[in-house]
Every structure is written in structure tokens, then in C-alpha cells.
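Just wondering, can you check both lines?
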Amino acid sequence: MNKNFSELPLRTGVGIILLNDQKKVFVARRIDNAKKFWQMPQGGVDDGEDFLKAAYRELEEETSVKSVELIKELDGTITYELPDRLLGIIWKGKYKGQKQKWFLMKFTGDDKEINIKTKNPEFLDWKWIDLDQITEVVVDFKLHVYKELKEKVKKIIN
């Protein structure tokens, strides 16, 4: 099957920048990536689901976290496309990348609430890092996304 991946649609998604009370950012390392890349919680939006509900759902599905306060819905959306090596593999080959709506949230719970050993686990490990570090730990094809997010978040929290 020879597919023209450029004609594939973008998947509609959400992302969550979760800050603790020290303004550190939650990141986790994916199970399906053997390298040392970390990412913030993110995922797809179900049909008919609004972005904020999807963000709360994804956060809980991936981290078990419910104790959050919404700080801000970030303006606009950010898009990334998969590199050729992942096209046709990720998301069962249905999408060429994602168009994401991002939310900045404050974690109001205790670290004991965080549990990545969920029903359908996506992560091996998690940690809190400085906002400036998010661009140092992310996979290359999402670097521009994390650079933009870092700048937007700095304007909000400083």
C-alpha cells in the first residue's frame, strides 16, 4: 500500500502544561520511545468533546491527576507534523501530525496523587523540571512546539 502521507489530516489534540507550586513543569517519558525524550501530557480530542474537557480527561487518563486549577487557555493552536520515519505508524497511519490546543494548569494536589501506572499506561517515568528545560528534553519534531509554549508560559507566570 503506497500512501501519500501529505494528504493525511492533522489530528485534533490538546496539551497540558502542569505547574507545581514551585512553577516547575510536569514531564513524563513515553513507554513507546526507548530514547530519553520527555513530554507534557497531551492527547486527542474525541468527537463532540470540547478542548477543556479533553484536557482534563487526558490529564487524568495519563497521570491520574484531578487536583488542578486552570490558569489559562493559551491563545491559538500549535501544529506539528510527524517525521517520515513515523508516518503511517503513529495513530494507525490515519494522521500526519497534530493541531493542538494547550492549557496552562496549576497542580493543587500532592505528588502522591500522580500515578502513571494507569489502565492504559503511556509513561515509564515522570518528574518536575524548570520551564527552561522543556526544550532540552523534547523529541526533535516537537521542539518548535515546546519553544513556543515556553515563551507563552513565561509571559503568563512572570
DSSP finds three helices and eight strands in the chain. The first strand starts at residue 10 and ends at 19.
